[in-house]
Amino acid sequence: DEGLRSRQRPNPDFTNRAAMSGGHLSKDFFELIKSIGECKSKQEEDKILAAEVATLRQRFTEQLSPKKMKEAVVRMMYAEMLGHNADFGHIHAVNMSQQTNLIAKRVGYLASTVCLHSGHELTTLLVNTMRRDLKSTNHVEVCATLVAIPKLVNLETLPALMDPVCALLDHPSEVVRKKAVMALHRFCQLQPSSAADLSEKLRRVLCDKDPAVMGASLYILHEGAEADPKAHKDLVPSYVSILKQITEHRLPSSFDYHRMPAPWIQIKLLKLMATLGTADQRASEGMYEVLLDVLRRADTGINIGYAIIYEAVRTITAIFPNIQLLETAASHISRFVSSDNHNLKYLGIKALAGIVQVNQKYALEHQLVVVDCLEDPDETLKRKTLDLLYRMTNAGNVVFVVDKLISHLRETSDDAFRASLTERITQLAERYAPDNSWFIRTMNGVFELGGELVRPDVAHNLMRLIAEGSGEDDEADMALRRFAAATYYSMLDRPILPDILVCVICWVLGEYGYLIGGGVALEDVVDKLVDAVERQFDAPSTRCWVVVAITKLVAQLGAMPAQVAEVCGKYKQSSQVLLSKYCSELEGLAAEVGTMHAALPTDASCEDLEVDPALGFLDAYVAEALSRGAQPYLAPGERPDELDVGGSISAAGGAHGGGGGGGGHGLRFDEYEKQQAPSQILAPPPAAAPTNGAPVAAPLGSGLNVSGVRSVWGAEGFKAAEPAAPPPPPQPGYGGGGYAYGGGGGGG
Prior knowledge:
The chain is mainly alpha-helical. It is 60% helix and 1% strand.
């Protein structure tokens, strides 16, 4: 009996298998799904699916029953979802959607949605079917059609489907109304101009008795509000009223998520209010009360509540500011930042960044909590925290924040992050520097760590600050220059210096090397710069900066040291034109000390140069040259024709047949005429065969022209020249006294 009962007991494995595969699917299909799930590699999976696609290709050529056709379409859809092409079965999916059987129709629409796209050629065959099914009395058929429409509709088929879908907004079933709103959302995305025609209908949908239909309409209205906020300002009271009803739990409990009433609808309403309340005090004032209520009720300690709080804070920072709301938002966000959850910390940092943009004081009290986030191992959180610190910086905390940024610049190896840090440290130092000495030290650190990532204008601004100072206290400005000169003199001893920092060092030492003090003479500075010339630089122009600094110091010394002369001799022949030029100028100026002092005065970088556009200093030289018989300068319009080079060239070109628009002066820009090949004139055939050794004329077009060349090589080798035959007596020709055509020509 026990054995009989065990045989009658249903097999649990078979029961589970049937439940998983579905009663309408065969065991073969279940085995296919199981074998794919047990694959150890993608190659093994592709092999199974390739065999399945080949089987389906053969099966679709056979006459299948409705049940087997439905399973074949499902298998085809499964193969397409896993990346294999089964386009031979697409037409069968379209045909199945046109059947009257409800299950077959749903499978057909589902397969068409998965396998086809809006631009597919088979979508046109579905338009009439969709229009017919949208008018069906069976709401399941209507829903299946509405699910397929957003994926398959395009600009060509949209006009045919617009009116039937709009008519479904009044359908008695709330599921149909919701899916109709979703289809209209897709219509508005394809053709934004249609949103204006649907405005009144969507406003009625916003008041639908079913919350799901109302929630679906918020997405279309949000996109419309982003495109044209003024046209949706009148809906602010409606949004506030809906949000208040939701927070007061007036919606059915089926919309709750972890005891939070309709959280997704709340988030979408908050986004709508943020869009409509931006820079609008009147609209924002109507939102303050409900936003406070949302913050209070969402603080339940669960993740979905944190999501609503974060979105509410974003809305508060977007609308017209309110002190009470900002303080409440900052207090809620502080718990995010101090949380042990990395995701909450990240959201808290982002929310505080939004609050800082409105007013820094509401986030400064959380500065220490923010700084603690810098020690977090999460790289994304660390970068977002540095971004927040940059936004929170002011004159009071710039030293602390910049030190933190420089420490991270020293540790990180990501070039993009290093460039961002370099840019931000530079901006903060230029904007909030407490004193010039701190600014110089900070920028030196940035130059050393950032190197090539620092923009050239940053170095120019630093040099300009050292040269001009504050302009209020000359003694303080001179102390700044002494500090800079001493600092940069000591930095020359470092083995590695970025090119941009070397340029700054050379300029400062060339201008203010005499201010170093501490027993450092100009000769010592020159010696260090001479050693610096031999460094390896990334940019060729950097060595030119060193040579220019040496030139300025030589002008202050009044004589060129031997090591400087050696440098000039070495680099004067350099292939770098600019470096060779500077070395040659240094040698030339050193020979004329007085001229060198006048050209390179000490501490004259800020003096204005008086430029004489008339070049009056050359008057004496010109007068002397004219007295010696030199020709005076003539402007191009005053020159005679014989001196007009452009005209001469043009005339010469015309005389030589250059042609083609050369009537004006100057260069020719027209195309040269194509050269014509000379016409070939055939010579008359010779009257008699040539004699041995006589010149043989080569026929035209046979290669080299050997006419007139005596043939001296034969089959036996070289042939010696034979004595020429005496010329025949002259024969009287036409007109007398001349030779007849074809007469002797041997003697020449």
